[in-house]
Amino acid sequence: MMIKRIVHCALFTLALAAVSLPGQAAMVGTAQMQPGATPAASGDLVQQRDWVVEQLVSGGVEQRAAAARVAALTDVQVRQLHQRIEEHPAAGSDGLVIVILILVITELMGYTDIIPGWPADTAN
Q1: What pLDDT is attached to residue 123?
Q2: Which residue segment(s) compose the domain that 58 sits in?
């Protein structure tokens, strides 16, 4: 009976201590959450921002909109976007391959007749 009472008191004390512990909350910026958020030289960052704007403009985004979008990004986001664009440039070959595959599949299934007589008509 005495051990049960000690256990209950210990659990009550732990629960009370857990509730009364002080908490702290603060805003955390994106730069703090990103790994390796070391500041680069300002000239390098300006060149990266300009390069990203150029890439967006070449992709069909208006100059003002591209500049506004890049200006809204943090330094870490600009570096990551610059790195991603360099690593994975947008190529039209993926879309072209998909279109060709769809056309070949629909041709073989008989839904389209792009190439007359293909595949060879075996009914005759």
Answers
A1: 55
A2: 41-91
